[in-house]
Amino acid sequence: MTALSILVAAALGLLVAAAGIGVLRWRRARSIGAMLAVVVVAAVAATLAGVVAITVDMVIEGRARDVVLAVVGVGALVGLGVAYVVARRVVRESRRLVEAVRSAPFIAPQGLPSELQTIANTLEEAYAREQALEGARRELVAWVSHDLRTPLAGMRAMAEALEDGVVTDRRYVSRIRHEVERLSVMVDDLFELSRIHAGALRLSRSRIGLADLVADTLAGVEAVAAAKGVRLAADAAPAPVEADAGALGRALANLVVNAIRHTPSDGTVTLTSGVLDGSAYLAVSDACGGIPAADLARVFDVAFRGEAARTPSLDGGAGLGLAIAQGIVEAHDGMIDVVNSGPGCRFEIRLPLAPA
């Protein structure tokens, strides 16, 4: 074969390839089967163009030319047949995936080609996450609506009594102010949680010591513990971390307030900090009597309180404190966990140590 025939075959192949790409772009919204058919036709046409160039250059005529063209024709038919079978299977499995997506609940069909199987498994995981988030959202709306309705009803009754002159006790005014503060805290918690879930939590990190954070937290919750009759204890060893002191302090305070709320009078809540296994840790231990094993995995769920009745105590919130603490810790590239330990449970935060 001369160089001219090679150039002619290459030129014809490029023209066929360009035409095939143009058709694929023009019909890009068509099915995968149609696209495979275009690919096979382009490949056969390019091969045929090369054969034509060879026959012209070698002046093949008669029986030899017929044999060459017959071989090319058989190859084309085989290629088209294989493409048809493959295209039918791809289309059939794609339709199976579409039908599964349209059904509820979505369950990934099995036996798909590997790429489609990966897509199906990913969709199933995404569907499960979406269902979990939707369930948590509905649960949160129901519980927060109840928590908002209760103080609002009390405030309305007290306001009407004051307005009608039925009572003139200043304690009603004090009680209304207390309920307003509770509602304000709940709204702030909802706003903070929405920022965490939206990924809009902005951290201003600096080098801080966990022992100092423990001391500040104890000072902030001392009045709450005294009102409940709960003792506070600390065993804080230095542990430097790169963190937002305000956000991390709020997470720790949420854990401590939760521990105080569930610890009986004369019980003790202990805070510890230090370095363990190459990471910094903060731990809050209480005397709540432990958490049922079935509830341990749900402790950090939004609005979870672990109570049969969802009515909060007077000092209770909307059940968002632990969820907020988890979001803040994870935003610091840390982990938070809870285990039953001793007379109660132990919440532990793990954070990366600050570089030396």
TrEMBL record:
SMART domains in the record: HATPase_c, HisKA
Organism this protein belongs to: Nonomuraea endophytica
InterPro entries given in the database record: HATPase_C_sf (IPR036890), HATPase_dom (IPR003594), His_kinase_dom (IPR005467), HisK_dim/P_dom (IPR003661), HisK_dim/P_sf (IPR036097), Sensor_HK_Regulatory (IPR050736), Sig_transdc_His_kin-like_C (IPR004358)
Record flagged with keyword Phosphoprotein: yes
UniProt KW keywords: Kinase, Membrane, Phosphoprotein, Transferase, Transmembrane, Transmembrane helix, Two-component regulatory system
Descriptive protein name: histidine kinase
PROSITE patterns named among the record's database cross-references: HIS_KIN
Cellular component terms (Gene Ontology): plasma membrane
Transmembrane spans: 34-60, 67-87
Domain Histidine kinase, residue spans: 143-355
A single GO molecular function term of this UniProt record: phosphorelay sensor kinase activity
Known catalytic reactions: ATP + protein L-histidine = ADP + protein N-phospho-L-histidine
Chief location: membrane
A Pfam family annotated for this UniProt entry: HisKA
Gene3D superfamilies: 1.10.287.130, Histidine kinase-like ATPase, C-terminal domain (3.30.565.10)
Superkingdom assignment: Bacteria
Record EC number: 2.7.13.3
Compartments in which it is found: Cell membrane
